[in-house]
Amino acid sequence: MLRWGAKHVEVTLDVEGNRIQVTTDRDGYFDIHLPLNKPLVPDQSWHTGTLDIIMRDERTVCAEVDIYIPPAAVDLVVISDIDDTVMYTGVANKLMMMYRLFFRKAHQRVAFPGVAEFYQALFAGADGQRRRPLLYVSRGPWSIYEVLEEFFQRNNIPVGPILFLREWGMTLQRPLPQKAEDHKSNLIQKMLELYDDLPFVLIGDSGQHDPETYARIVRDYPGRIKTIYIRNVNQDASRDEAIEDLAKEVTDDGCSLLLAADSVSMAEHAHEQGLISAAGLQAVRQAPSDD
């Protein structure tokens, strides 16, 4: 889907009486850090805010936004890749990946078996009451946000409070996306700084650089990454060996890395680590498979 951003326009956010105004950048995007001068509704994770956008022709466009604030009892943050981790994308085949990325509708995209149940179990925690932040990261463009949101809802995958994509910076003069080699690493580091008192679980796949990226973060933030799950999506023995070597390395920093072919293996490990409940593990085991 192609769209044009509204650059340099004023945006006002109001969340239960807390207001702030910002200006969009040259691509039409904006970040907001909202100081809370008035208390929000207690014991509630999701809050509704209103956006008022004053367009350059002085029209005002209004929208609602959902804002997630972790409960006091939260004990863990989960960050997951999307492509070839949550849903099958085939990033190794660039042409097919681009086709699936831009042209497939939500109902045409395929989730890996057991992903929904595993992520629901991680969200709930061992006692079923944690309501952990689930943050999703992708190198895809923001223009596919609505498709991914519908995909998550269709497949009963817990909706993340933040669905990180990126601005590709594509224009008529520059039709190819800007490089974002450190995109994922930078975002994870920001979240480690935001949730500076919580351990993390990172989930990715073996198709590209997730294992190396995650292992580097373990080294840079010792003691912060509890577990890494890598979905094995290729058939390369040398790649498997390289990831197993990384698993040995991160052990020295108190982190475990599991290379797994399916969601059940991840869930069994998570249950052994006390991350999910027995009921959550059973739900993953009972999930429909591709067989």
Keywords:
291 residues; alpha/beta; six-stranded parallel sheet; four-stranded antiparallel sheet; 8 helices; globular
Give an account of the 3D structure.
- With 291 residues, the protein is of the alpha/beta class.
- The chain has helices at residues 94-103, 115-124, 145-154, 183-194, 210-220, 237-251, 263-272, 278-286, and strands at residues 10-15, 18-23, 46-54, 60-68, 77-81, 134-141, 162-166, 200-205, 225-231, 256-260.
- The chain has a 6-stranded parallel β-sheet, with helices on both faces. The chain has a 4-stranded antiparallel β-sheet with strand order 2-1-3-4, with no helix packed on it.
- β9, α6 (237-251) and β10 form a beta-alpha-beta unit.
- α2 packs antiparallel against α8 and α7 (263-272) packs antiparallel against α8 (278-286).
- The longest helix is centred in the C-terminal third of the chain and has 15 residues, at 237-251.
- Residues 172-176 have low confidence and may be disordered.
Radius of gyration using CA atoms only? 20 Å
Q: Which consecutive residue ranges, at least 5 long each, have pLDDT under 50?
A: 172-176
* Strands ordered across the widest β-sheet: 7-6-5-8-9-10
Query: Order of helices and strands, N to C?
Result: EEEEEHHEHEHEHEHEHH
The percent range for helix content is: 25-40%
Query: What best-fitting shape do the alpha-carbon axes yield?
Result: globular
Count the helices. How many?
8
Which range does the strand content fall in?
15-25%
Oligomer designation: single chain
Give the biggest beta sheet: 6 strands, parallel
Name the average pLDDT. 86
Total beta strands: 10
Q: How far apart are the termini?
A: 34 Å
Helix vs. strand class: alpha/beta
